[in-house]
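User: I'm new to structure prediction. If I give you an amino acid sequence, what do you actually give back? Let's try with this one:
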Amino acid sequence: MIATVNHILEALLRWAPNHLKADYDNIGLLVGDPKQTVSGIITCLDVTLDVIEEAEAASAQLIVAHHPLIFRKLASVRTDDPTGMLVTELVRRGISLIAMHTNLDSAVDGVSYVLAEQLGLGDLTFLEQDREDGGYGVIGTLPSPLTKDEFLALAADRLQVPMLRYSGNPEQVLRVAVCGGAGSFMIDRAIRAGADAYVTADLKYHDFFTHQGSFLLCDAGHYETEMPVSTRVRHFLKESFPQLAVDVTQHVTNPVSYFIHGSSTSST
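Assistant: Good question. You get back a string of structure tokens that encode the predicted 3D arrangement of the chain. For your 268 residues, that looks like this:
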């Protein structure tokens, strides 16, 4: 079976429908020809020049990203603008781009489900289900209770992050809520749901003040809490289109580096 960009987009939208996206978002086919034949795909969190060059080297005609390259309306496409340069490179190299952003955040088996599974949680449900087929965040249960330090060590190991920001000191951690990416808006919901801990990203200083005590609030990084979904996208596409070569990017597109005091190198 010959697969086109449009065939792949249609399959992705059956998993994470368009109506699940936030009003402000920009998803779907952002660059390229919907009728373009596809034999190879690269999945990623962010589109960078490294990812585009990787796709070209792999003879992949399509990139499927989580974060939209074109988020706000473009008044122009110029090579001296970072976004314009990347759009130009995609067009020049004949590579199409699909973005699956807040619709994938809100879908069953989407970003937060993958994060929960990465942490070893079971019995997963939406933390807040605002419609029959979608919601925000996920809550689940660990196989057995952990101490605070044991859980933080598990999260750092499973998400491959060298440091975690946190507050709170629960007696044990068993029930855990998660939200991939920026999830401060769900802190109160996690507490009301009876979570011992909440793992998310992009928390502000005062978020940590507000929720001290027996509730563990953990910021594990935006990239780290969302990147695992790129592997889930790959698995979905391989199951849907077994004839295609589908790979997760080998490039770390995280713009944040970590300086660990006492270490000889910075870590990304």
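You can read the tokens as a compact description of the fold. Here is one thing that stands out. The first strand starts at residue 3 and ends at 4.
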